[in-house]
Design goal:
By secondary structure, the protein is α+β, with helices and mostly antiparallel strands. The chain is built from six helices and eight strands, in the order βαβαββαββββααα.
Length: 194
Amino acid sequence: MQIVLATRNPKKIREIKEILKGLDVKFLSLKDFPEIKEIRELGKSFSENATFKAREVARLTRRISLADDSGLEVDALKKGPGIYSARFARNDRERNRKLLKLLKDVPAGERGATFRCAVAIATPDRKVRVVEGRYRGEIAFKERGKEGFGFDPVFIAPRYNKTFAELGLEIKNRISHRSQAFQKAKKLLKQMPK
């Protein structure tokens, strides 16, 4: 079975493949389909965005597609940036700096946040299944760690008192919102006909 990961982000591709290892699947990504243009996220929820991307990629590639949409909901920002996390600023470094600047006057104990992830699996005949994962933590006062991507350097996993960027991939891939959602997706993929 071939499955197309609906992303071009090399760090995300690596993370997803690591979480889904053990499946009897050949993974492709949008890097294997350069003719497919960037798919805009126009939904009002993580689930809607993941569903739209997965359906579109399944339609264009005629293969099973797996898409995720994830982001950070910060309590002090009224659950923002939420579904706009990727568009919060131009790149990871700017996103983290912007977030820390917005929270500079927010004290410890009031910096709660939730990482959320929705994963959609779409077949070429337009059937879709969606699963979700979430991880509750808090925002650090400065960037810490070198691993991961996105908001990982500023998101603290309370149980470890480390940011996702300090934890390393092995631990992060066991506990994260994306891991939770993709573990659920893995169970669904195992049930699909070869």
